[in-house]
Amino acid sequence: MRIVVLVSGTGSNLQAVIDAVKTGELDVEIAAVGADREGTYGIERSSEAGLETFVVNFNSFPTRDEWDAALTARVASYAPDVVVSSGFMRIVSADFIEAFHGRYLNTHPALLPAFPGAHGVRDAMAYGVKVTGCTVHWADAGVDTGPVIAQEAVTVEESDSEETLHERIKVVERRLLVSTLAALAAAAPPA
Ligand code: GRF
């Protein structure tokens, strides 16, 4: 199973995938890692791991549509079986979703459909939930919508800040992403 991973930030979920591939726990080929902006640690750590990387910089395109078309073409050039949005903080178009229909996987630090959007951890805390968690799902054209593949709960502690809670969620999220990809790879028919 060939995957392309998209990141916007530090890429600790991505690192978990890289590590799991290295140890053999995860039998996938990371065809490339892409970002929507320059200077992300996600791209830096991918280069360090010897992976193919690319940037389709959102700010270098006059319109969102042009950026989206460039991203779609670049990702498609790697012929991935699955595209992983791993902390990729951009909404993609219906055309992108169509191009990778049913193959665009997203991770989110809340129990969807609760608390979608860029501040899932903050919003869950602000609501006062006692349990939140993370979700791995097939993404459609909405914001953090689409069929859920796997979820795991994380208890909110009285003493939690957004940062401490997000860190605990990310520990679970990394494991869930790797195990979900492993299950998909095991189910994928051989090329
Ligand atoms: C993850 O919690 C992801 O779900 C959210 O942002 C975080 C990204 O972390 N959208 P990292 O870049 O993988 O460290």
List keywords for this structure.
191 residues; alpha/beta; Rossmann fold; 38% helix; 21% strand; globular; binds 5-O-phosphono-beta-D-ribofuranosylamine
Descriptive account of the structure:
The structure is a single chain. The chain is globular, with a radius of gyration of 16 Å. Strand 4 (82-85), helix 4 (94-99) and strand 5 form a beta-alpha-beta unit. The chain has 191 residues and is α/β, with parallel strands linked by helices. It is built from six helices and seven strands, in the order βαβαβαβαβαββα. Helix 1 (12-23) runs parallel beside helix 6 (162-187). 5-O-phosphono-beta-D-ribofuranosylamine is lined by residues 7, 9-14, 86-87, 107-109, 170, 173.
What's the SSE blueprint?
Layout: E1 2-7, H1 12-23, E2 29-35, H2 41-48, E3 53-55, H3 64-76, E4 82-85, H4 94-99, E5 104-108, H5 120-127, E6 131-138, E7 148-155, H6 162-187
Parallel strand pairs: 1-2, 1-4, 2-3, 4-5
Antiparallel strand pairs: 5-6, 6-7
Helix pairs in contact: 1-6
The structure holds 5-O-phosphono-beta-D-ribofuranosylamine.
5-O-phosphono-beta-D-ribofuranosylamine binds next to helix 1, strand 5 and helix 6.
